[in-house]
Design goal:
The chain has 149 residues and is mainly β. Helix content is 11%, strand content 29%. The chain binds zinc ion (ZN).
Length: 149
């Protein structure tokens, strides 16, 4: 049996986060982002009731992976503007890979690059303000081109 490489615990950035327990090499596959394969519409309906974390992963087609249903600890991945991980889509599955070497104890991050359907309101903007603290921080978890509609 392999040693557990990652764990979810309280993050200094936001809510729960995912942390390395073992050294992770650059390029290594860390975890699959699991959840129910569903539509944006259905997932958005579920999200409205909950606040805070975003558990929905948009695929390049019209579907999403809803980590709040049948998901694993990958749903606790926080956003950073200079992330140490990236999500790679393979068919209808998403795997989280390390972009850089990650030392034990360090939090794992991906760049959410969220896109918003319809008008980008101040409310949405406020909800997705980024606090990652990187010098390159965009101050938002939204996709770079997500300007006012
Ligand atoms: Zn940031």
């Amino acid at each position: 049996m392999r040693l557990r490489r990652i764990t979810a615990r309280r993050s200094p950035v936001h809510g729960m986060g995912l942390f390395a327990l073992q050294p992770i090499a650059a390029g290594e596959r860390v975890i699959e982002y699991k959840g129910e394969l569903t539509s944006w519409r259905r997932a958005a309906g579920r999200q409205r009731s909950g606040a805070g974390h975003t558990f929905v992963f948009g695929l390049s087609d019209v579907r999403v992976i809803d980590g709040s249903r049948g998901g694993n600890s990958a749903r606790f991945l926080n956003h950073a503007c200079s992330p140490n991980c990236e999500a790679i889509e393979t068919g209808a599955r998403v795997f989280i890979h390390a972009l850089t070497a990650i030392a034990p104890g360090h939090e794992l991050f991906i760049d959410y690059r969220l896109s918003v359907d319809g008008v980008l309101t101040d409310d949405i903007r406020t909800r997705y303000i980024c606090h990652c603290g990187a010098s390159s921080c965009r101050r938002t978890m939204l996709r770079g081109n997500a300007e006012s509609a």
